[in-house]
Amino acid sequence: MTGRTIAIAVTPGAMHPWDLYELGVVASIFGTPQPDLADPWYELRICSVLPEVTESSIGHGAYLRAEYGVAELVSADTVFVPSVAYDCVAADREVPQELLDVLIEAKHRGARMVALCTGAFVLAAAGILDGRRIATHWEHAAILARRYPAVEIDGTALYVDDGDILTSAGMTAALDLSLHLVRRDFGAAVANRLARRLVVPPHRAGDQAQFVDLSVQARAEADLGPTLEWAAAHLDEPLTVELLAARAAMSPRTFHRRLRQSIGATPKQWLLTQRLARAQTLLESTDFGIDRISRLCGLGTAANLRRHFAAVVGVTPVEYRRTFEQREAPPAA
């Protein structure tokens, strides 16, 4: 399948049991066909670089088994390097040179490289991260920085998209990054529908790379849900905290507090996120002008849309549209 092959590099040594979560995320998203979202989907390959390592211990009797080898990894469009054994981090155990050589070859052949959590130590050892901004788990950021000073490490980011190199922090950040990749490959509508299918946890605020999927929404408490659903359907209208609070039969102060507790955002932050998500969808799926889109998403003027869009998404609406304008419209929900 052209352009959609995903390889996971099996690393030697025992990983932490919770690393199984990250691998499960990758397998669920990229290894499960989604014909109603996009067909063809991805082709997932679990690859062993070292002939003697056909499976990697995850701990507590669990193993990751590789059915593919070096050839399939080198030829993949995207290569995932999962978290590595703890002694590769804390004790500075050397990464096998054979693994580094294969990853370097894959990068030279044009593969998109993705490191999950401490997988960044492997790409850094290969020199692939030199001069690049990356994310990793905050607990290991200082160690990585001391060991590889040529790497620019952001220990607070959930994930960093640096074009052909993408990195994430630990655990659920792998889900954020995986959905971001789907968004890059198939567009916001497909990523949003997949996120709902996976019943993703609340979207976490923080550093956001370009093209982050703003439409992946947090799940609000049951008594707030109807109000937020109504608001999402009326984004082109003037919406105030007072109006939303009245619809929820709450005082503005209570509504503000309950929403903050429920999804980690204030009403104004939530509204802005929904308006920008609507703008993303319209930029992808219509040829409407920027003035019309700004009105439909409730941001009023084109200048206001451009200002908020660039601040949050990282590019202008025109640049964003140019990135996704060649995509076919996704199937109806």
Structural commentary:
There is one protein chain. The protein has 333 residues and is α/β, with parallel strands linked by helices. It has two domains: 5-198, Class I glutamine amidotransferase (GATase) domain (Rossmann fold); 225-324, Arc Repressor Mutant, subunit A (Orthogonal Bundle), CATH 1.10.10. The chain contains 15 helices and ten strands. It has helices at 19-30, 70-74, 86-89, 97-108, 120-125, 138-147, 173-186, 188-198, 225-232, 241-247, 252-263, 267-285, 290-296, 302-313, 317-324, and strands at 5-10, 43-48, 55-59, 62-65, 78-81, 112-116, 133-135, 152-154, 159-161, 165-168. The strands form three sheets. A six-stranded mixed β-sheet has the order 2-1-5-6-10-9, sandwiched between helices. A hairpin with a 2-residue loop joins strand 3 and strand 4 (62-65). The longest helix has 19 residues, at 267-285.
Name the features.
transcription regulation; 333 residues; INH-QAR; Arc Repressor Mutant, subunit A; alpha/beta; single chain; DJ-1/PfpI; HTH_AraC; disordered C terminus; Helix-turn-helix domain-containing protein; Rossmann fold
Quick description:
This protein is α/β, with parallel strands linked by helices. The chain has helices at residues 19-30, 70-74, 86-89, 97-108, 120-125, 138-147, 173-186, 188-198, 225-232, 241-247, 252-263, 267-285, 290-296, 302-313, 317-324; strands spanning 5-10, 43-48, 55-59, 62-65, 78-81, 112-116, 133-135, 152-154, 159-161, 165-168.
